[in-house]
């Protein structure tokens, strides 16, 4: 994910821009001399949005990370070539800011000497850390950075130390288009997309490319907007069968609330940025009916899967709430790092990167994962339906 307000996008400093533009050259010149761990522990860094615009996602991911580490340590730790070593988490807040994310990555790799990093949650913050993790040969697994170019250098080659546990925007947006047309039977759709992030614009672009019906209108909003009545009134007059809202729960919740208040009863379909209980809190439970969103982690489907069900039970026991999608993705990211260490029989950071790229048929709580040549996970996708603010159904996308 990469939620930033216009203000936050506007304050990217010249120094941060230089850092980001330097990513490709750093990637090519890295010595690939990995970070070594001491005898007792494996240090895993967490570069996460714990404050700022994307803190809701960052906090959910932190909880998934902490649960995974706690479970692994309770079971004896990570098996590093026959020697059990406990995980030591080093958690730092990037404040949903590009320059801070780059600084956090530098601290984690050069000062803390971590073996791997989980995070950031957003694409922009994740991209900002790439030069520093590449220079240090320390891999990072983002639970939720979905921009298609995130794992790639400017020349199209893969970033050697960048991985993710989530699927890309183009796959998610295209899957939503198929669901809307084939399963909701919606022939006339309006789009209201978040234009303040690559997340919203990328999903909208992918949806438009794949949708087989008629897009009768396409409008945008910015992060932080509160009043959507004028746009929704226009949609209502055009007799749409559904509305596609690629964005985050903060604005999507208000869009749903205002749409229902003016009598728009058609399905409102979104993306995994809506997969948070706060969506219904903002929209109101009664209004959050006939709401659908694509997700890599379906609560209803998970209840039937023994691995996912175990995770859900443990999460509820620890945090006293239902596990959100982002916690599940972050939980899987930690276990992917564990898998890479154990299969490669080494906690040297460069070797962890090599073995993350070799993950095949890894059983995660969000589905079976195989990492492809571009460091993206091949995994299933589903759509969840909300009725009165609660998940009432889930669908496989055909």
Description:
There is one protein chain. With 398 residues, this protein is of the alpha/beta class. The chain folds into 2 domains: 6-167 and 308-378, Rossmann fold (3-Layer(aba) Sandwich), CATH 3.40.50; 169-295, Response regulator (Rossmann fold, 3-Layer(aba) Sandwich). Helices cover 43% and strands 20% of the residues. The chain contains 15 helices and 16 strands. It has helices spanning 6-10, 14-21, 23-29, 55-74, 98-111, 123-136, 169-183, 198-210, 229-237, 249-261, 278-283, 299-302, 306-319, 325-344, 349-356; strands spanning 41-48, 78-80, 83-93, 116-118, 140-142, 162-164, 188-194, 214-221, 242-245, 268-270, 291-295, 362-364, 367-371, 377-378, 382-387, 390-396. The strands form 3 sheets. The chain has a 7-stranded mixed β-sheet with strand order 8-7-9-10-11-15-16. Helix 8 (198-210) links the parallel strand 7 and strand 8. It is globular. InterPro entries: BCAA_transport, Leu-bd, Peripla_BP_I.
């Amino acid at each position: 994910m990469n939620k930033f307000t216009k203000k936050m996008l506007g304050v990217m400093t010249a120094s941060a821009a230089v850092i980001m533009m330097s990513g490709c050259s750093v990637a090519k010149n890295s010595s690939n001399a990995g970070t070594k761990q001491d005898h007792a522990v494996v240090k895993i860094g967490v570069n996460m949005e714990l404050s700022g615009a994307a803190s809701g996602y960052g906090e959910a991911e932190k909880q998934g990370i902490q649960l995974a580490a706690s479970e692994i340590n309770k079971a004896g730790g990570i098996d590093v070539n026959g020697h059990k070593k406990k995980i030591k988490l080093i958690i730092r807040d990037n404040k949903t800011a590009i320059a801070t994310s780059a600084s956090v990555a530098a601290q984690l790799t050069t000062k803390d000497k971590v073996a791997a990093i989980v995070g950031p949650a957003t694409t922009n913050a994740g991209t900002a850390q790439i030069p520093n993790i590449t220079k240090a040969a320390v891999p990072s697994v983002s639970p939720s950075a979905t921009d298609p170019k995130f794992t790639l250098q400017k020349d199209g080659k893969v970033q050697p130390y960048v991985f993710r546990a989530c699927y890309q925007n183009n796959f998610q947006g295209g899957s939503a288009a198929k669901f809307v047309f084939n399963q909701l039977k919606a022939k006339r759709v309006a789009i209201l997309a978040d234009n303040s992030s690559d997340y919203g614009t990328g999903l909208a672009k992918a949806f438009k490319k794949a949708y087989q019906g008629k897009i009768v209108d396409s409008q945008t909003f910015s992060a932080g907007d509160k009043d959507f009545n004028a746009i929704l009134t226009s949609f209502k007059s055009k007799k749409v069968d559904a509305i596609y809202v690629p964005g985050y729960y903060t604005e999507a919740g208000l869009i749903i609330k205002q749409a229902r208040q003016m009598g728009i009863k058609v399905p409102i379909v979104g993306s995994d940025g809506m997969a948070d209980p706060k969506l219904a809190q903002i929209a109101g439970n009664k209004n959050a009916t006939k709401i659908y969103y694509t997700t890599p982690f379906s609560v209803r489907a998970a209840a039937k899967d023994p691995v996912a069900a175990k995770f859900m039970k443990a999460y509820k026991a620890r945090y006293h709430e239902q596990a959100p999608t982002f916690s599940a993705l972050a939980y899987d990211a930690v276990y992917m790092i564990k898998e890479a260490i154990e299969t490669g029989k080494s906690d040297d950071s460069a070797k962890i990167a090599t073995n993350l790229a070799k993950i095949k048929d890894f059983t995660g709580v969000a589905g079976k994962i195989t990492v492809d040549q571009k460091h993206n996970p091949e995994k299933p996708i589903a759509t969840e339906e909300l009725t009165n603010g609660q998940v009432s159904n889930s669908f496989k996308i055909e």
